[in-house]
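Quiz preparation item.
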């Protein structure tokens, strides 16, 4: 595989630029002084807003015309198949092309210490928190995250320090590189938050999914590798590590032996930290929920064990973290109805997010609107798991599947609604996003909480819902 080498101010074009990772890479390349352009079909916030603020031109739709003027390099997103018109045009024109992770490794990671945050759940938040802690400690890290952080105002940062904090995505790189993205990331240290079968379109079996994470674990040098000890899949892949392993968990998690780092909750935000059985003090996290406490431990391990940031510095800075857009993001409180947006689409993530919101808002109805849109969410693989994921919701409204799949493979939303009702949760499966919106508006009252679950645009329901609830409650 050839090593990329580009002169300063090269013209780099990204196909699929509005993906969360691709948009962040576009910003990173722009910060390095390259001329960046891109193309996409699905253009919506937060990536569209970020790219616009950076004055990076985005062509709507794909085709050879987007390669005029001729770029020096085309980065081909994993949305492209071999017959993609724009990617094929680049190939036919003899324009050098590369995948997202190949570009990141050769242009950024070879000269820095790569800190890779991976796992089925929580990797975006954990990456953002790790980057924030290192930045607050004065390390000036570089950052690449598949999301927009509130602390940096973007998903990227080009720093002068040695550390490069990167979200390690297990999805494949490109049609011409059918390997996990994180297999390119030469990890100096790494985190694996969890390994729970996902991306069934890429990994048809749980064994294939775990094997992908083993490729990351086997590369970590010198370490450490931070592993959530309450996750059986993560612990299995950790057995293949040649570097030091640091385990972490929250008291009450299903671990078989006490982890190296243990958090003992002391309310919604405070926790006592124990390291190797010894008290390390009381910390305050800005995030709620057991899943976010685990994410916090992972970030603290990387900052302290790998990068040497003193615990006292981390304790002082941790409460200032502002989080990531679309991760329990508060959209507004129209008429005293609290509306959140969340990226969660795997049943475990949905369950953990609902538990966190219920703890934060114990009094009002908790209304969940779920759009099964990802390749995994739309399939029947997690039919039963979804039925058990919404127990903390008072009302669950299910949008249509966002992908056209054979009946035998597709998540049965009507069956899901029936199963939820059997478990005691009011639920309905809808035919359109407009129906979802109408159902929320009809049910929500002052003091209630609404959370929108989707990893996509969700029919622009976010802004429409705020608008719809405002006149309703104002006129009540």
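Solution:
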């Amino acid at each position: 595989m050839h090593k990329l080498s580009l002169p300063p101010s090269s013209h780099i074009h990204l196909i699929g630029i509005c993906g969360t990772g691709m948009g962040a890479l576009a910003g990173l390349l722009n910060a390095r002084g390259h001329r960046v352009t891109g193309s996409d079909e699905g253009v919506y916030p937060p990536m569209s807003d970020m790219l616009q603020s950076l004055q990076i031109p985005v062509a709507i739709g794909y085709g050879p015309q987007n390669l005029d003027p001729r770029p020096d390099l085309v980065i081909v997103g994993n949305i492209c198949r071999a017959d993609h018109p724009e990617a094929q045009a680049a190939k036919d024109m003899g324009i050098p092309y590369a995948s997202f992770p190949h570009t990141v490794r050769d242009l950024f990671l070879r000269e820095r210490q790569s800190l890779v945050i991976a796992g089925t759940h929580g990797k975006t938040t954990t990456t953002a928190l790790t980057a924030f802690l290192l930045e607050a400690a004065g390390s000036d890290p570089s950052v690449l995250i598949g999301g927009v952080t509130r602390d940096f105002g973007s998903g990227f940062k080009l720093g002068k320090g040695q550390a490069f904090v990167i979200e390690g995505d297990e999805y494949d790189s490109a049609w011409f590189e059918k390997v996990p993205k994180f297999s390119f990331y030469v990890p100096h240290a790494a985190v694996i938050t969890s390994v729970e079968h996902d991306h069934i379109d890429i990994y048809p079996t749980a064994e294939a999914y775990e094997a992908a994470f083993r490729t990351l674990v086997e590369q970590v040098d010198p370490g450490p590798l931070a592993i959530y000890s309450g996750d059986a899949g993560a612990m299995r892949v950790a057995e293949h590590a040649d570097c030091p392993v640091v385990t972490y968990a929250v008291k009450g998690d299903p671990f078989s032996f006490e982890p190296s780092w243990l958090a003992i909750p002391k309310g919604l935000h405070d926790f006592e930290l124990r390291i190797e059985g010894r008290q390390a003090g009381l910390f305050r996290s800005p995030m709620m929920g057991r899943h976010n406490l685990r994410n916090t431990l992972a970030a603290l391990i990387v900052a302290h064990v790998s990068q040497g940031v003193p615990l006292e510095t981390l304790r002082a800075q941790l409460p200032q973290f502002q989080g990531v857009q679309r991760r329990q993001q508060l959209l507004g409180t129209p008429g005293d109805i609290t509306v959140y947006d969340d990226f969660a689409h795997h049943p475990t993530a949905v369950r953990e997010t609902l538990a966190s919101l219920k703890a934060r808002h114990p009094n009002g109805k908790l209304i969940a609107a779920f759009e099964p849109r990802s390749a995994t969410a739309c399939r029947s693989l997690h039919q039963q798991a979804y039925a058990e994921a919404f127990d903390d919701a008072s009302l669950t409204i299910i949008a249509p599947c966002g992908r056209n799949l054979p009946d035998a493979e597709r998540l049965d939303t009507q069956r899901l609604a029936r199963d939820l009702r059997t478990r005691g949760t009011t639920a309905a499966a809808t035919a359109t996003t407009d129906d979802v919106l109408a159902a929320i508006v009809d049910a929500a009252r002052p003091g209630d909480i609404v959370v929108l679950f989707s990893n996509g645009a969700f029919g622009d329901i976010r802004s429409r819902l705020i608008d719809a609830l405002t006149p309703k409650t104002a006129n009540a």
